[in-house]
Write a structure and sequence with these properties.
- The chain is mainly alpha-helical.
- It has one domain: Rhopdopsin 7-helix transmembrane proteins (Up-down Bundle).
- Helices cover 75% and strands 3% of the residues.
- The chain contains 13 helices and three strands; from the N terminus they run αβααβααααβαααααα.
- Helix 2 crosses helix 13, helix 4 packs antiparallel against helix 7 and helix 10 packs antiparallel against helix 11.
- The protein is globular and about 65 Å long.
- The termini are far apart.
- It is a multi-pass membrane protein.
- It is found in: Membrane.
- InterPro entries: GPCR_Rhodpsn, GPCR_Rhodpsn_7TM, Olfact_rcpt, OR51/52/56-like.
- One of its GO terms (biological process) is cellular response to lipid.
- Keywords: G-protein coupled receptor, Membrane, Olfaction, Receptor, Sensory transduction, Transducer, Transmembrane, Transmembrane helix.
Protein backbone atom coordinates (compact mmCIF):
# COMPACT_ATOMS: atom_id res chain seq x y z
CA UNK A 1 0.00 0.00 0.00
CA UNK A 2 2.85 2.38 0.91
CA UNK A 3 4.61 1.59 -2.34
CA UNK A 4 1.43 2.24 -4.38
CA UNK A 5 0.95 5.54 -2.61
CA UNK A 6 4.60 6.44 -3.28
CA UNK A 7 4.24 5.59 -6.97
CA UNK A 8 1.05 7.63 -7.23
CA UNK A 9 2.68 10.63 -5.59
CA UNK A 10 5.57 10.35 -8.04
CA UNK A 11 3.23 10.53 -11.00
CA UNK A 12 1.40 13.56 -9.61
CA UNK A 13 4.57 15.49 -8.82
CA UNK A 14 6.56 15.05 -12.01
CA UNK A 15 7.26 18.76 -12.21
CA UNK A 16 9.02 18.82 -8.83
CA UNK A 17 12.84 18.63 -8.70
CA UNK A 18 14.20 15.11 -8.17
CA UNK A 19 16.22 14.76 -4.96
CA UNK A 20 16.56 10.97 -4.91
CA UNK A 21 15.76 7.79 -6.84
CA UNK A 22 14.46 4.43 -5.65
CA UNK A 23 16.36 1.33 -6.85
CA UNK A 24 14.14 -1.74 -7.26
CA UNK A 25 16.43 -4.74 -7.78
CA UNK A 26 14.99 -7.72 -9.67
CA UNK A 27 11.36 -6.56 -9.71
CA UNK A 28 10.06 -10.06 -10.53
CA UNK A 29 12.17 -11.95 -7.97
CA UNK A 30 12.15 -9.91 -4.78
CA UNK A 31 11.93 -13.00 -2.52
CA UNK A 32 15.28 -14.60 -3.41
CA UNK A 33 17.45 -11.49 -3.19
CA UNK A 34 18.83 -12.51 0.22
CA UNK A 35 20.07 -15.82 -1.24
CA UNK A 36 21.74 -14.02 -4.16
CA UNK A 37 23.53 -11.67 -1.77
CA UNK A 38 25.66 -14.53 -0.38
CA UNK A 39 27.61 -15.40 -3.59
CA UNK A 40 27.76 -11.71 -4.54
CA UNK A 41 29.19 -10.84 -1.11
CA UNK A 42 31.79 -13.61 -1.36
CA UNK A 43 32.80 -12.50 -4.87
CA UNK A 44 33.09 -8.92 -3.63
CA UNK A 45 35.39 -9.96 -0.77
CA UNK A 46 37.44 -12.08 -3.18
CA UNK A 47 37.78 -9.21 -5.66
CA UNK A 48 38.77 -6.67 -3.00
CA UNK A 49 41.15 -9.03 -1.20
CA UNK A 50 42.88 -10.38 -4.32
CA UNK A 51 43.39 -6.94 -5.89
CA UNK A 52 44.63 -5.46 -2.61
CA UNK A 53 47.15 -8.29 -2.15
CA UNK A 54 48.32 -7.85 -5.75
CA UNK A 55 48.81 -4.09 -5.29
CA UNK A 56 50.73 -4.57 -2.02
CA UNK A 57 52.89 -7.30 -3.60
CA UNK A 58 53.84 -5.12 -6.58
CA UNK A 59 54.50 -2.18 -4.24
CA UNK A 60 56.68 -4.17 -1.81
CA UNK A 61 58.59 -6.39 -4.24
CA UNK A 62 61.40 -4.48 -6.00
CA UNK A 63 61.66 -7.05 -8.82
CA UNK A 64 58.08 -6.20 -9.85
CA UNK A 65 58.81 -2.48 -10.33
CA UNK A 66 58.53 -2.79 -14.10
CA UNK A 67 56.16 -1.20 -16.66
CA UNK A 68 54.11 -4.36 -17.21
CA UNK A 69 53.35 -4.67 -13.48
CA UNK A 70 52.62 -0.95 -13.19
CA UNK A 71 49.93 -1.43 -15.85
CA UNK A 72 48.60 -4.40 -13.90
CA UNK A 73 48.48 -2.18 -10.79
CA UNK A 74 46.43 0.36 -12.72
CA UNK A 75 44.02 -2.39 -13.76
CA UNK A 76 43.66 -3.50 -10.12
CA UNK A 77 42.97 0.07 -8.99
CA UNK A 78 40.24 0.42 -11.62
CA UNK A 79 38.72 -2.90 -10.52
CA UNK A 80 38.67 -1.84 -6.86
CA UNK A 81 36.98 1.50 -7.63
CA UNK A 82 34.37 -0.20 -9.85
CA UNK A 83 33.57 -2.78 -7.17
CA UNK A 84 33.30 -0.15 -4.43
CA UNK A 85 31.07 2.01 -6.63
CA UNK A 86 28.51 -0.70 -7.38
CA UNK A 87 28.53 -3.72 -5.06
CA UNK A 88 28.21 -2.16 -1.54
CA UNK A 89 25.01 -0.37 -2.62
CA UNK A 90 23.64 -3.58 -4.17
CA UNK A 91 24.34 -5.52 -0.95
CA UNK A 92 22.78 -2.70 1.11
CA UNK A 93 19.60 -3.07 -0.95
CA UNK A 94 19.57 -6.84 -0.42
CA UNK A 95 20.39 -6.81 3.31
CA UNK A 96 18.90 -3.56 4.65
CA UNK A 97 16.30 -2.68 1.99
CA UNK A 98 18.24 0.58 1.44
CA UNK A 99 16.71 1.34 -1.95
CA UNK A 100 16.97 5.12 -2.00
CA UNK A 101 19.93 6.83 -3.65
CA UNK A 102 20.43 10.58 -3.86
CA UNK A 103 20.29 12.40 -7.20
CA UNK A 104 23.99 13.33 -7.08
CA UNK A 105 25.12 9.86 -5.90
CA UNK A 106 23.18 8.20 -8.73
CA UNK A 107 24.82 10.26 -11.45
CA UNK A 108 28.25 9.98 -9.81
CA UNK A 109 27.84 6.20 -9.88
CA UNK A 110 26.79 6.43 -13.54
CA UNK A 111 29.89 8.47 -14.41
CA UNK A 112 32.30 6.14 -12.60
CA UNK A 113 30.77 3.03 -14.18
CA UNK A 114 30.94 4.44 -17.72
CA UNK A 115 34.38 6.04 -17.42
CA UNK A 116 36.16 3.28 -15.46
CA UNK A 117 34.74 0.53 -17.67
CA UNK A 118 36.24 2.20 -20.75
CA UNK A 119 39.45 2.92 -18.79
CA UNK A 120 39.78 -0.84 -18.20
CA UNK A 121 39.33 -1.51 -21.90
CA UNK A 122 41.97 1.12 -22.73
CA UNK A 123 44.35 -0.41 -20.14
CA UNK A 124 43.97 -3.80 -21.84
CA UNK A 125 44.85 -2.10 -25.13
CA UNK A 126 48.03 -0.58 -23.65
CA UNK A 127 48.94 -3.95 -22.11
CA UNK A 128 48.48 -5.58 -25.53
CA UNK A 129 50.88 -3.02 -27.02
CA UNK A 130 53.33 -3.81 -24.21
CA UNK A 131 53.24 -7.51 -25.15
CA UNK A 132 53.56 -6.65 -28.85
CA UNK A 133 56.76 -4.67 -28.24
CA UNK A 134 58.13 -7.33 -25.87
CA UNK A 135 57.73 -10.13 -28.44
CA UNK A 136 58.06 -8.39 -31.81
CA UNK A 137 60.76 -5.85 -30.82
CA UNK A 138 62.48 -7.35 -27.75
CA UNK A 139 65.74 -5.41 -28.19
CA UNK A 140 63.90 -2.07 -28.28
CA UNK A 141 61.55 -2.95 -25.41
CA UNK A 142 63.60 -1.27 -22.62
CA UNK A 143 63.81 1.99 -24.59
CA UNK A 144 60.12 2.04 -25.65
CA UNK A 145 58.25 0.69 -22.62
CA UNK A 146 59.62 2.85 -19.82
CA UNK A 147 58.26 4.32 -16.61
CA UNK A 148 57.63 7.55 -18.49
CA UNK A 149 55.64 5.64 -21.12
CA UNK A 150 53.44 4.10 -18.39
CA UNK A 151 52.85 7.52 -16.79
CA UNK A 152 51.84 9.04 -20.13
CA UNK A 153 49.65 6.02 -20.91
CA UNK A 154 47.90 6.35 -17.53
CA UNK A 155 47.22 10.06 -18.15
CA UNK A 156 45.89 9.25 -21.63
CA UNK A 157 43.64 6.47 -20.27
CA UNK A 158 42.11 8.69 -17.58
CA UNK A 159 41.79 11.83 -19.74
CA UNK A 160 40.36 10.18 -22.87
CA UNK A 161 37.75 8.07 -21.17
CA UNK A 162 36.90 10.53 -18.40
CA UNK A 163 36.29 13.45 -20.76
CA UNK A 164 34.37 11.50 -23.42
CA UNK A 165 32.05 9.74 -20.95
CA UNK A 166 31.40 12.79 -18.74
CA UNK A 167 28.53 14.11 -20.94
CA UNK A 168 26.53 10.90 -20.35
CA UNK A 169 25.57 11.61 -16.70
CA UNK A 170 25.42 15.37 -17.41
CA UNK A 171 22.82 14.82 -20.16
CA UNK A 172 20.80 12.50 -17.91
CA UNK A 173 20.93 14.87 -14.93
CA UNK A 174 19.42 17.68 -17.03
CA UNK A 175 16.30 15.67 -17.88
CA UNK A 176 12.91 16.15 -16.20
CA UNK A 177 11.72 12.92 -14.57
CA UNK A 178 8.16 11.57 -14.34
CA UNK A 179 9.01 8.90 -11.78
CA UNK A 180 11.89 8.13 -9.44
CA UNK A 181 11.59 4.33 -9.40
CA UNK A 182 14.55 2.72 -11.21
CA UNK A 183 13.99 -0.94 -12.09
CA UNK A 184 17.63 -1.83 -11.64
CA UNK A 185 20.18 -2.33 -8.85
CA UNK A 186 22.49 0.36 -10.21
CA UNK A 187 22.15 3.74 -11.94
CA UNK A 188 22.84 2.81 -15.55
CA UNK A 189 22.23 5.56 -18.07
CA UNK A 190 19.43 3.74 -19.90
CA UNK A 191 17.65 2.65 -16.71
CA UNK A 192 17.60 6.22 -15.41
CA UNK A 193 16.95 8.16 -18.62
CA UNK A 194 13.94 5.98 -19.47
CA UNK A 195 12.18 7.52 -16.45
CA UNK A 196 12.26 10.94 -18.10
CA UNK A 197 9.23 12.72 -19.52
CA UNK A 198 11.43 14.19 -22.27
CA UNK A 199 12.95 12.90 -25.49
CA UNK A 200 16.10 10.89 -24.71
CA UNK A 201 17.15 10.12 -28.29
CA UNK A 202 20.30 12.27 -28.15
CA UNK A 203 21.22 10.80 -24.74
CA UNK A 204 20.94 7.25 -26.09
CA UNK A 205 22.75 8.12 -29.33
CA UNK A 206 25.67 9.76 -27.52
CA UNK A 207 26.19 6.76 -25.23
CA UNK A 208 25.90 4.32 -28.14
CA UNK A 209 28.36 6.19 -30.38
CA UNK A 210 30.84 6.95 -27.58
CA UNK A 211 30.74 3.38 -26.28
CA UNK A 212 31.40 1.85 -29.69
CA UNK A 213 34.13 4.38 -30.52
CA UNK A 214 36.01 3.83 -27.24
CA UNK A 215 35.49 0.08 -26.76
CA UNK A 216 35.56 -0.64 -30.50
CA UNK A 217 38.85 1.16 -31.14
CA UNK A 218 40.45 -0.57 -28.15
CA UNK A 219 39.27 -3.98 -29.37
CA UNK A 220 40.56 -3.36 -32.91
CA UNK A 221 44.00 -2.34 -31.60
CA UNK A 222 44.10 -5.37 -29.27
CA UNK A 223 43.27 -7.70 -32.17
CA UNK A 224 45.94 -6.04 -34.34
CA UNK A 225 48.55 -6.37 -31.58
CA UNK A 226 47.86 -10.06 -31.11
CA UNK A 227 47.81 -10.64 -34.87
CA UNK A 228 51.34 -9.22 -35.12
CA UNK A 229 52.36 -11.24 -32.05
CA UNK A 230 51.01 -14.47 -33.56
CA UNK A 231 52.74 -13.74 -36.87
CA UNK A 232 56.07 -13.09 -35.13
CA UNK A 233 55.77 -16.17 -32.93
CA UNK A 234 55.05 -18.49 -35.87
CA UNK A 235 58.28 -17.30 -37.52
CA UNK A 236 60.40 -18.34 -34.54
CA UNK A 237 62.40 -21.46 -35.36
CA UNK A 238 64.02 -22.10 -31.97
CA UNK A 239 62.56 -25.15 -30.19
CA UNK A 240 60.33 -24.22 -27.26
CA UNK A 241 60.50 -20.50 -28.06
CA UNK A 242 56.89 -20.43 -29.34
CA UNK A 243 55.51 -21.83 -26.09
CA UNK A 244 57.62 -19.43 -24.04
CA UNK A 245 56.57 -16.43 -26.13
CA UNK A 246 52.87 -17.29 -25.95
CA UNK A 247 53.04 -17.93 -22.21
CA UNK A 248 54.21 -14.35 -21.62
CA UNK A 249 50.93 -12.99 -23.01
CA UNK A 250 48.67 -15.90 -22.02
CA UNK A 251 47.52 -14.30 -18.77
CA UNK A 252 46.75 -11.01 -20.50
CA UNK A 253 44.76 -12.80 -23.21
CA UNK A 254 42.68 -14.65 -20.58
CA UNK A 255 41.86 -11.36 -18.82
CA UNK A 256 40.73 -9.80 -22.11
CA UNK A 257 38.60 -12.89 -22.75
CA UNK A 258 36.88 -12.55 -19.35
CA UNK A 259 36.25 -8.86 -19.87
CA UNK A 260 35.03 -9.15 -23.48
CA UNK A 261 32.88 -12.24 -22.96
CA UNK A 262 30.88 -10.82 -20.05
CA UNK A 263 30.53 -7.48 -21.87
CA UNK A 264 29.42 -9.20 -25.09
CA UNK A 265 26.80 -11.28 -23.27
CA UNK A 266 25.53 -8.11 -21.55
CA UNK A 267 25.23 -6.27 -24.89
CA UNK A 268 23.39 -9.20 -26.51
CA UNK A 269 20.91 -9.53 -23.64
CA UNK A 270 20.18 -5.79 -23.78
CA UNK A 271 19.59 -5.96 -27.54
CA UNK A 272 17.25 -8.94 -27.06
CA UNK A 273 15.49 -7.27 -24.13
CA UNK A 274 11.98 -8.24 -25.29
CA UNK A 275 12.86 -11.95 -25.50
CA UNK A 276 14.74 -12.16 -22.20
CA UNK A 277 13.36 -11.57 -18.67
CA UNK A 278 14.32 -8.05 -17.50
CA UNK A 279 16.10 -9.45 -14.44
CA UNK A 280 18.74 -11.22 -16.57
CA UNK A 281 20.47 -8.04 -17.89
CA UNK A 282 20.36 -6.59 -14.36
CA UNK A 283 22.17 -9.64 -12.94
CA UNK A 284 24.71 -9.69 -15.79
CA UNK A 285 25.43 -6.00 -15.26
CA UNK A 286 26.23 -6.68 -11.60
CA UNK A 287 28.36 -9.71 -12.45
CA UNK A 288 30.33 -7.67 -14.99
CA UNK A 289 31.46 -5.49 -12.08
CA UNK A 290 32.43 -8.56 -10.04
CA UNK A 291 33.71 -11.48 -12.14
CA UNK A 292 36.57 -9.75 -14.06
CA UNK A 293 37.82 -7.90 -10.92
CA UNK A 294 37.76 -11.15 -8.93
CA UNK A 295 39.49 -13.23 -11.60
CA UNK A 296 42.07 -10.74 -12.96
CA UNK A 297 44.53 -10.83 -10.01
CA UNK A 298 44.02 -14.59 -9.53
CA UNK A 299 44.91 -15.34 -13.16
CA UNK A 300 48.06 -13.22 -12.99
CA UNK A 301 48.94 -14.61 -9.57
CA UNK A 302 48.64 -18.21 -10.76
CA UNK A 303 50.23 -17.83 -14.20
CA UNK A 304 53.03 -15.35 -13.49
CA UNK A 305 56.00 -16.81 -11.59
CA UNK A 306 57.33 -13.42 -10.43
CA UNK A 307 53.99 -12.40 -8.89
CA UNK A 308 53.53 -15.81 -7.30
CA UNK A 309 56.97 -15.56 -5.69
CA UNK A 310 56.26 -11.98 -4.59
CA UNK A 311 53.01 -13.06 -2.88
CA UNK A 312 54.83 -15.91 -1.14
CA UNK A 313 57.47 -13.48 0.18
CA UNK A 314 54.70 -11.11 1.35
CA UNK A 315 52.97 -13.91 3.25
CA UNK A 316 56.25 -14.92 4.91
CA UNK A 317 56.75 -11.31 6.09
CA UNK A 318 53.27 -11.21 7.53
Amino acid sequence: LIRKHYMASETNSSSLPVSEFLLICFPNFQTWQHWLSLPLGLLFLLAMGANTILLITIRMEASLHEPMYYLLSLLSLLDIVLCLTVIPKVLAIFWFDSKSISFSACFLQMFIMNSFLTMESCTFMVMAYDRYVAICHPLRYPSIITGQFVARAAIFIVARNGLLTMPIPILSSRLRYCTRVIKNCICTNMSVSRLSCEDITFNQLYQFVTGWILLGSDLILIILSYSFILKAVLQIKVEGAIVKALSTCGSHFILILFFSTVLLVLVITNLARKRIPPDVPILLNILHHLIPPALNPIVYGVRTKEIKQGIQKLMIRL
